[in-house]
Structure formats: structure tokens, C-alpha cells
Amino acid sequence: MFKLDGKVALVTGASGGIGSAIAATLHAQGATVVLSGTREEALKEQVAALGGVRAEYVVANLSDAAEADALIGKAEEKAGAPVDILINNAGLTRDNLALRMKDDEWNQVLNVDLSSPFRLCRAALKGMLRRRAGRIVNIASVVGATGNAGQANYSAAKAGMVGMSKSLAQEVGSRGVTVNVVAPGFIVTPMTDVLPDAQKEKLQSQIPLGRLGKPEDIAAAVLYLCSDEAGWVTGSTLHVNGGMAMI
Amino acid sequence: MSEIADKVKKIVVEHLGVEESKVTPEASFIDDLGADSLDTVELVMAFEEAFNVEIPEDAAEKIATVKDAIDYIEKQKAA
């Protein structure tokens, strides 16, 4: 089950905690993975960690529309085959209370977290439609559904991603292409490691399953949605949050 | 029939899986040949690839029949 032999998967934000776990999981199931991110050194290390086999990388800055538009083509060049699986995982946060939020903080987050995934979906779908097969998994967030003080921009982008995915799923379903969302809860990454212990404990107390999430928890959900076995699942959002929000 | 017309017809037959006899110049992709809106987008993509032309969005919207497609491509090729 859940084998991806012969498939090419592009993972954006692959140098981050969740992105690298997704790439490693898809790779372990047989996929050729193309890692994209902004930090070349980190991507190189990732490729090396995967044994340098069936693994490539492309440096891309997704805040640049032209780079986002070109990424699918570059990935296919590197892999030597079309992209069968697209994982829109790259994202950034610029947290601030709305009253203090600058236009720039709003625009930057919407651009990287919502517009660039759209660009990548549009570019990838062309080939997927022609081949009558394809998997897109967009990585959103629990805050897209619940909201979060200080994250009006990020929550809006992630909620937007869910609506976008549902629309795309309806457009391309008849061609055997699925578009789904994984919405992670609170995951342990270098970004969250720096939080004070007291705050981590408080977060943990709100999670029925009693621990913070691991990147691998998210990767497993992504793998399912990428697999042939998930062929009758589209337009759905899989919440992976330890029960923190049951939606 | 021109070479372009032949090729257009072939693409339409292949893509929509319809009988060749139904693909007359006047045939409308949606009304006569059973295409949905995504089919028309895919047809335009297929024409672009096959003839190495670019069909911009506003031109693509006007291509409703087999003849529309042939005329547009012939014009592009002649230019």
C-alpha cells in the first residue's frame, strides 16, 4: 500500500521541518523527489541525506511570481520526467495584531502562502490533465479553520488555500486529478523549539492526544493523499492536530 | 481540405472521442460534440502544442466551432 514507485514529487519548502519530513517519506515509498526552497545549502544536505538517489533540488524564491511560474518546468527538467505529485508546503508567517499589521506583512504572507501555491497548481495541472492523473496536496494549517490572534494574514491565506483547493478539485476531478489539503496543528520544528517551556506545556494541555505533533505525523497524512489508494478522495481537508480542534 | 483542417479534426476526434463524421466545420464543441468547459481549454492547449502557436485567452474564448479553430490557426500560420 501507498507505494509511489516511478512517480515524481515536487515538495516546496523542503528545507523546513515539515517539508523535509514529507520529502523523506515520499522518497521512502519510492518516489523521485524534487526539493525546492530558498536555502541551497540546506537543500543540498537534504538531497545527501536521501542518499543522493531519486532526489534533486531547485532553489526558488516563491515570493517572486516569475520564479513560482517557472518552478514546475525546472523541477521536470531536473527529474527528467513530469511532476505527478505537487506538495505546496512552503509558507511563511509575519505575525502581528491586526491593528499593528503593515500592508507589507499582509501582502507578503498572502503572496507566498496563497498566490504562489495557486501559481504552482496552475502550472502543474496542465500536464496532469493531459496525463489524466495527478495528486496535489496543499499544506494549510489548523488556524485557517479556527483563526488565531496575531495571525489574520496567515489564517486568511490558509483558509483561502482550502477554498482554492476545493474549487480546483471540482474543476479537474473528471480528469483523475485530486486536490486535497492537510491542515497541521502544533508541530515541533526549529521554529517552535524556541518557545518557552511554560508555553509549550500550555499548548500541550489543549491537545487530547497529549503531545505536540511531529513532522512525520504530517508526512504520513500527505503520503496517504498522494497514493493510488486515495483515488476517491478529493477536495477534502485532513486535520492532523492531535485532536486540538475537532473539525 | 487543408493540412491544418485535417490535423484539427484529428485532434478533436482524439480528444473528445467522437465519430469523425460528426466533426464538421460548423460543429460546436460544446453543443454538438459534447465537450465540457474543461475540454475546450484542453483542446486549445492541444492546438497550441500541435501547431506551435499561442492562442491568448480572449481569442480562445471565441473558438466555439471546428471552423473557428481552423480559421484562427490558419491566420496565425499565414502571418
Automatic annotation (TrEMBL), chain A:
Residues 7-190 form the Ketoreductase domain. It is an enzyme of class 1 (oxidoreductase). The active site is at Y154. It holds the Pfam family adh_short_C2. One of its GO terms (biological process) is fatty acid biosynthetic process. Its EC number is 1.1.1.100. It catalyses: a (3R)-hydroxyacyl-[ACP] + NADP(+) = a 3-oxoacyl-[ACP] + NADPH + H(+). NADP(+) binds at T38, N89, Y154, S155, A156, A157, K158, I187. The keyword Oxidoreductase applies. Pathway: Lipid metabolism; fatty acid biosynthesis. One of its GO terms (molecular function) is NAD binding. Keywords: Fatty acid biosynthesis, Fatty acid metabolism, Lipid biosynthesis, Lipid metabolism, NADP, Oxidoreductase. The keyword rRNA processing does not apply. InterPro entries: 3oxo_ACP_reduc, KR_dom, NAD(P)-bd_dom_sf, Sc_DH/Rdtase_CS, SDR, SDR_fam. Belongs to the short-chain dehydrogenases/reductases (SDR) family. Homotetramer. Catalyzes the NADPH-dependent reduction of beta-ketoacyl-ACP substrates to beta-hydroxyacyl-ACP products, the first reductive step in the elongation cycle of fatty acid biosynthesis. This is 3-oxoacyl-[acyl-carrier-protein] reductase. It comes from Acetobacter indonesiensis. The lineage of its organism: Bacteria, Pseudomonadati, Pseudomonadota, Alphaproteobacteria, Acetobacterales.
Automatic annotation (TrEMBL), chain B:
Coiled coil: none annotated. One of its GO terms (cellular component) is membrane. 4'-phosphopantetheine is transferred from CoA to a specific serine of apo-ACP by AcpS. This modification is essential for activity because fatty acids are bound in thioester linkage to the sulfhydryl of the prosthetic group. Pathway: Glycolipid biosynthesis; KDO(2)-lipid A biosynthesis; Lipid metabolism; fatty acid biosynthesis. GO terms for molecular function: acyl binding; acyl carrier activity. It holds the Pfam family PP-binding. The modification O-(pantetheine 4'-phosphoryl)serine is found at S37. Signal peptide: none annotated. InterPro entries: ACP, ACP-like_sf, PP-bd_ACP, Ppantetheine_attach_site. It comes from the Bacteria. It is found in: Cytoplasm. Carrier of the growing fatty acid chain in fatty acid biosynthesis. NCBIfam families: acyl_carrier, PRK00982.1-2, PRK00982.1-3, PRK00982.1-4, PRK00982.1-5. Belongs to the acyl carrier protein (ACP) family. This is Acyl carrier protein. The gene is acpP.
